């Protein structure tokens, strides 16, 4: 009798499990990979911050120009990898992104965001900066931000790669990568990226580096698998 | 008859002589040494509806030599002009009453056209009738799609001007220091600050900060209210930023009053400032890097 | 109007080929018979010699016409140019920015000129320009033209001077040159402007058409500007910057009219020597000028009579909305000429004149736009004192029966701007004597009727140089003294010009 009850319970449990929808630990597929380069990248030069002593003294050794960030094994950092085609864009995430000015540098150097996503710009330095994103598709604006001023809140509505500069400190430059998608990643110095939560479908994945241009590849996601995609950008010295 | 004629001729001659003598002593009409505005036209409201097809004909007559057939600032004269003519396709304008990043109002554009831009090749198109300017503006707006999708910004509120006092000027001087205007404009406003050299505008053309000490007019106006608007809205397309997040209301007038003291004209601000300096100059901390003081 | 492309094309080349073979009657003949208003300095000296009666004055007038005295000021040979590509080069503006159809100014060009050829952008002084910029301009007009005059006196038998005279219509045509204007204008310094204009006739014989210096914006005030030298009077409708070029149509008859027999040598279209105080509102909608001028009709030298004239001009413009800028003005010129001189051996000594008598010219003018149509009305009332009108001998009393001469004249000129590179023009003009110097003179003597029309096509319009392809026809009727019948009669002499010209300007 006990065996019969056990068998029924097991059968019910197994059936329930088979019929119940699977609660995924991670929904959707993933595209992951590494960005590397071939050829010879330009040598980055140290930045002279003598004109801004309050920033210069924050760096024990001078910081390097961040136009090209490389790692061991020819990896490429600060590369924006994103879904440029396929799938639906969806609404911008409620969570905003942050852009900071510290030590007379932009942190991060390249900031990816979705069009319509809230962008907060802070000044953590002892000196005034002016934020001057040089957009051509979105309206161009230029605002001063003294130390202690409240953060600047802004939203960009159209996709565009926008160079950002400070006119007071001409060595400062960064990028806003305003994208049509929330699926994006900015590589670290190790060149690795991971785009998660992709519904099934055919996608074009694009890698963008501020000097070396773009490269696109196609990938198809059918379920929750992890697709591996590597990019090799051609480095130029100039 | 001949006696009358002789009288007329000699009166005319005397009139000319007296006019020369009095003209030598005549100062600009009641404007504290500042250049005059254009007979009130600069502040008129545009009521006319512009007609782009008519405006195109007038644009070709007056504007195309510099601003180009496509409104992109690539006219036939552009290679020889410094600063370069405005590129209308970007809808980015220096002289506005609206916040940075927003479109200017029709009144802003009319003011620029009528007033011209000093130290540039943009003439003062004062005689053009309102309707003609409205027509030209409506044609210029066809060069950029932004005019179809955006409205002009809400003009910056310019409060009533506060009295010109030494307190106001000193407060303005403190702002000049605090907001680091001197980093571009220089401690004396000569346009020679530490960040001034190598500056470029948004089209990568060389540009210099204003030298207050040799300018009796600004590119975007001549009055105190114009000056207030300039640093509140910023000059889009140039390194000059908007300070409206950080300078509010009447505080802006303090900065205006201080900036006037740096200019070459004899203004009330300059008069008060010079008189005070004669006895109090030692009290001032020099503008600039004050971290060591 | 005929197609302007055809004007320069093959059809006219073939017609001209025939004309080239034909002999060219001297153009001076045609122009002399055209100019009814001869230079009266000549008349004066003749009058000084002859014992004068009314009849003598009359005859002297007729003789001056028959002797083909060249007119110093009214002939087409003196170019009227005021259009400077050098300005376009300096400031980077197209010609059309300042000119409705060059050389006529539009309202912006008027403001530029009133400012002393300055844009007032702190880049007006020469130091702001490249060292290589030199403000020099030339304008000259190769052309083909045909002149015709009716009722010209010729020998009844050609070659036989004793055969008596008959009247015949004479025609001449051929290729020709206009005079040339060579000039420079601009600024010496901020608010110090200058003009130096050398003008030549068709034979490159130059004279000073205008040389003046102007102190602009005295006291930083646009209402005070002082110009000294030889300059054009501040006429609302400028004859120097208008759109007609032919022998007959290339000047306003009203601007140069001289009453029959009058010794007054003045025309409001002649450049004068003197000093002018002028002023304008910032947009030049309101303008005034008051000038003191020497009584020598602009001829430099010692022959200035130690006497002065005065000229006044005022105009006001209005914003005409969609139609354009509308302007109306009034003017008055009050002049005097001496009637007594010191003499030596019976000959008058120039510059020693006294006993001045006056003359005046006054009236109003307008410039009205109706979209692409422009109307330029002009009215003049002229009056010469009896001493001057009768051409009386200096140092002699007034002839019996001499009266003031007075007349009314005017024109209505119309332009139609098809676009900024094509304009059609026409003009109707009339002058009517209202009182002759002597009651025995026919009341209509000297009356003028003129009609002109034309077209100008600008093949290119940019910021460096200019070319206008010009076509014009002009017809004038002048009531002249009868030449074969008894004295006291008149004859209507018709003169006409047909002109095809390439008017270029660098």
Relevant terms:
heterotrimer; A: 238 residues; mainly beta; Immunoglobulin-like; 2 domains; five-stranded mixed sheet; four-stranded mixed sheet; C: 506 residues; Porin; 16-stranded antiparallel β-barrel; 10 helices; globular
In helices, the fraction of residues of chain B equals: 25-40%
User: In the CATH classification, which architecture of the largest domain in chain B applies?
Assistant: Orthogonal Bundle
What is the helix/strand order of chain B? HHHHHHHHHHH
- Structural domains of chain A: how many: 2
The CATH class assignment of the largest domain in chain A is Mainly Beta
Shape type of chain A: globular
CATH C-level class of the largest domain in chain B: Mainly Alpha
Helical stretch count of chain B? 11
Strand content of chain B: under 5%
CATH architectural name of the largest domain in chain A: Sandwich
What is the chains' assembly state?
A: heterotrimer
Low-confidence stretches of chain A: none
Principal-axis shape of chain B equals globular
User: What kind of sheet is the major sheet of chain B?
Assistant: none
The strand count of chain B comes to 0
Structural class assignment of chain A: mainly beta
How large is the radius of gyration of chain B? 22 Å
Radius of gyration of chain A: 23 Å
């Amino acid at each position: 009798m006990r065996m019969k009850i056990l068998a029924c319970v097991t059968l019910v449990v197994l059936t329930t499990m088979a019929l119940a929808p699977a609660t995924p630990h991670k929904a959707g597929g993933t595209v992951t990979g590494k960005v590397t380069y071939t050829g010879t990248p330009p040598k980055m030069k140290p930045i002279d911050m003598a004109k801004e002593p309050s920033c210069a003294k924050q760096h024990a050794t001078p910081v390097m120009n961040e136009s090209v960030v490389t790692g061991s094994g020819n990896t490429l950092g600060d590369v924006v990898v994103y879904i440029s085609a396929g799938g639906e864009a969806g609404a911008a995430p409620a969570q905003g992104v942050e852009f900071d000015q510290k030590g007379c540098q932009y942190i991060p150097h390249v900031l990816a965001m979705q069009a319509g996503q809230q962008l907060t710009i802070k000044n953590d330095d002892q000196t005034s900066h002016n934020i001057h994103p040089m957009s051509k598709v979105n309206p161009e604006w230029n605002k001063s931000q003294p130390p202690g001023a409240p953060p600047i809140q802004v939203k960009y509505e159209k996709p565009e790669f926008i160079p950002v500069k400070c006119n007071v400190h001409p060595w400062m430059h960064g990028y806003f990568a305003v994208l049509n998608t929330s699926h994006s990643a900015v590589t670290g110095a190790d060149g690795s990226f991971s785009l998660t939560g992709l519904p099934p479908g055919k996608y074009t994945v694009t890698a963008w580096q501020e000097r070396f241009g773009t490269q696109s590849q196609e990938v198809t996601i059918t379920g929750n698998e992890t697709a591996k995609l590597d990019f090799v950008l051609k480095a130029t010295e100039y | 008859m001949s006696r009358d004629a002789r009288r007329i001729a000699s009166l005319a001659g005397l009139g000319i002589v007296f006019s020369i003598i009095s003209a030598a002593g005549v100062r600009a009409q009641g404007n504290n040494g500042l250049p005059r505005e254009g007979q009130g036209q600069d502040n008129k409201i545009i009521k006319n509806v512009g007609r782009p097809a008519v405006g195109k004909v007038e644009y070709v007559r007056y504007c195309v030599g510099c601003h180009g057939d496509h409104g992109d600032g690539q006219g036939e004269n552009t290679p020889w002009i410094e600063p370069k003519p405005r590129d209308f396709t970007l809808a980015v304008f220096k002289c506005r009453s609206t916040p940075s990043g927003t479109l200017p109002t029709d009144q802003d554009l009319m003011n620029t056209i009528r007033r011209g831009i000093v130290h540039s090749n943009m003439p003062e198109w004062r005689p053009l009738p309102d309707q003609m300017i409205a027509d030209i503006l409506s044609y210029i707006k066809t060069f950029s799609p932004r005019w179809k999708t955006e409205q002009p910004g809400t003009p910056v509120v310019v409060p009533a001007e506060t009295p010109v006092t030494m307190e106001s000027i000193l407060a303005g001087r403190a702002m000049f220091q605090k907001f680091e205007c001197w980093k571009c404009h220089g401690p004396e406003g000569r346009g020679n600050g530490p960040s001034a050299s190598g500056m470029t505008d948004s089209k990568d053309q060389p540009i210099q900060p204003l030298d207050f000490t040799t300018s009796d007019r600004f590119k975007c106006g001549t009055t105190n209210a114009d000056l207030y608007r300039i640093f509140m809205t910023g000059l889009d397309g140039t390194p000059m930023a908007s300070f409206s997040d950080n300078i509010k209301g009447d505080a802006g007038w303090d900065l205006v009053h201080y900036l006037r003291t740096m200019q070459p004209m004899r203004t009330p601000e300059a008069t008060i400032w010079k008189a005070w300096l004669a006895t109090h100059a030692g009290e001032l901390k020099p503008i600039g890097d004050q971290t060591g003081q | 109007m005929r197609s302007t492309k055809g004007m320069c094309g093959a059809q006219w080349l073939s017609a001209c080929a025939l004309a080239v073979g034909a002999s060219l009657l001297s153009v001076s003949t045609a122009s002399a018979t055209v100019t009814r208003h001869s230079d009266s300095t000549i008349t004066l000296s003749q009058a000084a010699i002859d014992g004068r009666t009314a009849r003598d004055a009359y005859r002297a007038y007729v003789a001056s016409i028959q002797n083909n005295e060249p007119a110093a000021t009214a002939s087409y040979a003196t170019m009227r140019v005021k259009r400077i590509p050098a300005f376009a080069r300096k400031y980077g503006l197209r010609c059309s920015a300042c000119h409705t159809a060059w050389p006529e100014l539009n309202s912006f060009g008027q403001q530029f000129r009133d400012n002393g050829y300055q844009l007032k952008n702190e880049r007006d002084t020469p130091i702001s320009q490249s060292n290589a910029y030199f403000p020099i301009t030339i304008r000259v007009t190769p052309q083909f033209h045909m002149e015709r005059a009716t009722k010209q006196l010729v020998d009844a038998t050609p070659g036989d001077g004793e055969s008596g005279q008959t009247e015949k219509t004479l025609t001449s045509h051929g290729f020709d040159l206009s005079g040339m204007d060579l000039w420079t204008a601009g600024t010496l310094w901020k608010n110090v402007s200058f003009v130096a204009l050398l003008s030549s006739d068709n034979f490159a014989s130059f004279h000073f058409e205008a040389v003046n210096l102007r102190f602009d914006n005295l006291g930083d005030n646009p209402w005070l500007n002082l110009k000294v030298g030889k300059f054009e009077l501040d006429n609302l409708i400028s004859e120097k910057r208008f759109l007609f070029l032919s022998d007959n149509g290339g000047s306003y008859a009203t601007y140069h009219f001289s009453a029959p027999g009058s010794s007054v040598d003045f025309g409001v279209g002649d450049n004068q020597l003197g000093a002018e105080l002028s002023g304008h509102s910032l947009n030049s909608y309101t303008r005034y000028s008051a000038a003191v001028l020497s009584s020598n009709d602009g001829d430099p030298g010692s022959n200035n009579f130690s006497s002065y004239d005065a000229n006044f001009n005022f105009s006001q413009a209005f914003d005409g909305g969609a139609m354009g800028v509308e302007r109306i003005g009034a003017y008055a010129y009050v002049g005097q000429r001496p009637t007594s001189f010191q003499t030596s051996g019976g000959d008058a000594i120039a510059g020693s004149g006294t006993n001045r008598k006056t003359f005046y010219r006054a009236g109003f003018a307008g410039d009205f736009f109706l979209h692409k149509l422009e109307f330029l009305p002009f009215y003049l009332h002229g009056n010469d004192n009896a001493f001057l009108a009768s051409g009386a001998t200096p140092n002699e009393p007034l002839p019996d029966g001499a009266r003031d001469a007075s007349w009314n004249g005017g024109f209505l000129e119309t332009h139609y701007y098809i676009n900024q590179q094509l304009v059609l023009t026409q003009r109707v003009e009339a002058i009517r004597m209202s009182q002759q110097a002597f009651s025995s003179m026919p009341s209509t003597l000297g009356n003028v009727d003129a009609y002109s029309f034309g077209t100008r096509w600008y093949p290119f319009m940019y910021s460096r140089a200019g070319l206008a392809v010009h076509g014009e026809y002009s017809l004038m009727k002048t009531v002249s003294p009868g030449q074969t019948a008894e004295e006291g009669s008149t004859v209507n002499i018709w003169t006409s010009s047909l002109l095809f010209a390439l008017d270029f300007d660098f």
